[in-house]
Amino acid sequence: MIVSALVKRYEETQDVPIGWQKRGVSHALDIDENGRLLSVLSLETAEGKKRVKRVLTLPMEPSGRTSGIKAAFLCDNGSYLLGLDDKRGTEKFEAAQLLHSEVFSNVSTPEANAICAYFKAGIPHSDAFIDAETASKATFVFQVNGKFVDADNVAVHCAWDEHNARDIETAEQTLCLVTGRRESPEAIHGTINLYKGQTSGSRLISANAESFTSYGKTAKDRAADVSKYAAFAYVTALNALLKDEKHRQFIGEDTLVFWAEKGGEDEEELFVNLFAPPKIDEDNDLADTIAKIAKGEKVADYKPDCKFYLLCLSPNAGRISIRFFYEGAFGDLIHNIGTHYERLEITGDGRTPFSFLPLWLILSETTVKKKAGDASPLLGGQTLRSILTNVDYPFTLYNAMLTRIRAGEPVNQTKAAVFKAALIKNFNEKEVTTVALNEQSEKKPYVLGRLFSVMERLQERANGSATIRERYFTSACANPGSVFPTLLNLSMHHAAKLDNANAIFYEKIKGELLTRLDDETPFPATFNLDDQGRFILGYYHQTQWFFTKKKTGEELSNEQ
């Protein structure tokens, strides 16, 4: 299913013919029509502090040459084209000569003749034009008469295609699992450059050890009956998606690629904008658009029935891991995202600038340094899958937020919103998962969370600072029975330091909350994990009530 979708993407969008690929080239070997090396030209350009290679359409790089000698056509490293390898340079140069003479055996053009003459003359003295260290890391292409020898050269293009056709005609034929046609199978699939800066790449389909094989096959056999065309198409399409920032996002250690069927450019643009939500004081058309599509309302330029694809990948030793794959209607996808944002909606703390909480911000709150890239390797993909497919949030996310709070971090808007969303989706909680304070709720964990906030506020007004959160919050959240009697005694001392009006104000709130607790077990010995979430939510709601609720009359005078 995944490979089929990528092959379809290739057929809809790619202009790279089979047997060719877009390759980054750092240098050109400028030769004359007699094959003499005139100079080595750098093709890299500076973009800020980075050096960017020139991208040309060139013959496919041969697969599976981690060991042994296998030359590439027209574009290769210094070992093959300049014979720079101290141990096997001559062998590699001769292998490149043999390949080019075979491909150009029936071609007589200035470019073909010049390249054949270059190899016939033997290993050139390239040290006059480029130092050995740079050349060993470089990728070279030929230049004849001021023009690159690549896919734009018609004679060269035809020669390479004919060479590939001869290989296919003499190769084994089998039923391709992707196209359904009898075609030549691909033994070793191309590599995928999963993240920026990766040079060697990894494979999506491979069998590099006996433990990965089945049905009597060995690691030397092909991993699947996928034709050369299908293997080329899916690798080309996936690499193109990974290079395009409009079709790729990094989620922690995972990489998400996404695309729509042909004609879905508007849907793709809307989806990528979800990863950069507007700030509260900015234009909020994006949030309005998501809300309308989620409700099934028609929005200009967006097609709810447009087929949309999501593929989440993760790096692994030897082979890429697939976190999840989604194929469905764009409207259903946006509905799930909109529902997720509805679950996250909570009264703000004035510190979060976004109109709705992006995933990277949620992941950052699970880390010590507040960097999404430091999140647990599996957490990003798991959370994203929960959002997009509308399944339960991963317990690891819930537990990671609890861990940070237990470590002494404050309960901010992002953490509280995650607890609210998880309580709704995972525990079917409705009563305490309101946007703002639910003053009518009598659920004990929620009430005790509110009570803790009141006593913290009381201490702050009495002493100018509050320390009970740092000292007691973790215990109060998990084992309220061992902490709350002590906190109530402390609150009486704090109230005694206030003037009469303020003391009455806080004692009134505290007393009203205590009446909601039963007399036999007002403070349970322990709270399970979902009750700890309710406690945290009650604490956050009550704390924000003190800061945001508009007071009138007696309340206003006591809060000044």
The global form is: elongated
State which percent range the strand residues make up. 5-15%
Overall residue-averaged pLDDT value: 86
Unreliable stretches covering 5 or more consecutive residues: 550-560
Estimated radius of gyration? 32 Å
Q: Please identify the structural class as seen in this structure.
A: alpha+beta
Tally of alpha and pi helices: 20
Q: How many domain units?
A: 4
Helix content: 40-55%
Terminal CA distance: 64 Å
Using DSSP, what is the number of strands? 15
Largest sheet: 5 strands, mixed
Write up this protein:
The protein is of the alpha+beta class. The protein folds into four domains: 1-12 and 173-243, no CATH class; 18-150, no CATH class; 245-427, no CATH class; 444-559, no CATH class. 44% of the residues lie in helices and 13% in strands. The strands form five sheets. Strands 2, 3, 7, 8 and 9 form a five-stranded mixed β-sheet that branches. The chain has a four-stranded antiparallel β-sheet with strand order 12-13-14-15, with helices on both faces. A two-stranded antiparallel sheet has the order 1-6.
